[in-house]
Predict the structure.
Amino acid sequence: MDTSTPNLKTIAGRIRALRLQRGMKRYVVAEKVGISRVCYHGWESGEVEEPKLGAIVAFAELVDIDLDWLIRRKGEDPIERRTGPRMSRAGRRIAHLRKRADIRIRKRRPKKRKLKK
């Protein structure tokens, strides 16, 4: 997995940066946008130079950004608004731990006692 800083000069880099900033997995984004995992990987790797407009609109709505910034990088830069990579990584870790704790709590069930005859 490539952990280098995405190149924001390309649409592929902007898509990858937004996904990483939101702490989302590739397959989750592909599912929610309505495309295959392979197609989404093509977006991020730059193999697909011009993604379909409907899917790009769905992605922009998913990550809640301005479509104009995503396509042409005009307007307010949502990447610069983040607090920093360490904060977002820590935030993702805290959310992950909270989710795991919640799952453990839900899975606990009272033990069934066997009745003696």
Remarks:
- The mean pLDDT is 76.
